[in-house]
Design a protein that fits this description.
The complex is a heterodimer of chains A (about 350) and B (about 80). The two termini of chain A are about 25 Å apart. Helices cover about 30% and strands about 25% of the residues of chain A. In chain A, helix 3 runs parallel beside helix 4 and helix 7 packs across helix 8. Chain A is built from nine helices and 15 strands. Chain A is α+β, with helices and mostly antiparallel strands. Chain A folds into two domains: about 170 residues, Thiolase/Chalcone synthase (Peroxisomal Thiolase, Chain A, domain 1), CATH 3.40.47.10; about 160 residues, Thiolase/Chalcone synthase (Peroxisomal Thiolase, Chain A, domain 1), CATH 3.40.47. In chain A, helix 4 links the parallel strand 4 and strand 5. Chain B is mainly α. Chain B contains four helices and no strands. In chain B, helix 1 packs antiparallel against helix 2. Chain B is globular and about 35 Å long. Classes of the chains: A alpha+beta (about 350), B mainly alpha (about 80). Chains A and B meet through helix 7 and helix 8 of A and helix 2 and helix 3 of B.
Amino acid sequence: MKNKWAAIKAITYHLPSQKLTNEQLAQEFQEWGIEKIYDKTGIAERRVADINECASDLGVLAAEKLFNTNGCTKDEIDFLIFCTQTPDYFLPTSACLIQDRLGLSTSCGAIDINLGCSGYVYGLALAKGLIETDLSNNILLITADTYTKLIHPEDKSVRTLFGDGAAATLISGDGEIESIGPFVFGTDGRGKEKLIVPAGGFRLPLSSETAVETQDASGNVRSAQNLYMDGPEIFNFSLREVPKAVNQLLEKSKLTIDDVDYFIFHQANKFMLEKLRNKIKIPLDKFCINIETVANTVSTSIPLALSLDYENNLIKKGSKIMLVGFGVGFSWGACMIQVN
Amino acid sequence: MALDSFKEDLSNILEINIDDLHDDFEFDSDNWNSLSIVATIVAIDEHFAIQIEGDKLNSCHNVLDLLQLISYSIRMHDKL
């Protein structure tokens, strides 16, 4: 029997219209100039979801573009994977809401996965598994987050970095060759407190105590209900694990850096990406930095960068591309894809 | 060599001339904050191939504290 191969058929994205610029941030945080924010992050502006706009709303708009432009009909989707850390509700599953909103078939499977910056790689792995074991034929993988809703307005440490957005990827089982994989994965839950919203789940429910705001040594204000990021430890984690994951994947793929046409890492910030590129010794022209106008969009950053670079002709058909996602958890994953 | 290169990077991080980077150069909230600590983590990784926790770096009061912490961390790393 002929092997069934999963293949990425299309990627579309949607960004909310509201922008937060460095000029606006510099007015609020007087100690940081416009140039300083750009120099440290490589980000000029971020997109911010409206107060009533959820990640699922952004995801639905990204998916509608996919159906409008890529010839796939909604009836053909037999599985929906929604990757988010900012769902509509604790329950029901946001993927169920999206199935209804998009008008997908009721015979379609639908699940949420709760991962951040590594989520796209894990979503691709699940999609490949479902297709190549013949459990599914056409999978809609949506990544979407509204991290800006988790951020205290007076916390410049994260407000400068994160933006909202969504991407939709169609993965189908009609690939001619194996074009997704191999994969490597990694998890180190000891890093759980380094990037966290401490309150609001069942471990620490919302209360008047969790709403109390405190100011850290750098003047950033937040409560236990807001996003907290330990920047130095995120750097230590990334410098430690990302080069290892890249080397493990090269070994597993029997490839060298020279054999890989393009590298798309999670678009955390420009400073981190440049340091990782330097440490791994990836040539500049093979390395994606696409963060200036979109910021760090969590699990959407990789498909968004892939889509933007494809639109800008930086990726050619047949290119061997390495994707590397890493962040909250700590969780990381890397895979090879071939764009056909 | 690695130490000289690191000191050059450190003077850039602290935004001072390399000639002013003495052991008793004091850190304060302006020159020793989360951004400079992140940059120092990267420089330590690059020049000494070790990693030091941000909290330990944050507790350094001057250049001598930092160099001693790096020296201690290298010895501990070599023992592993």
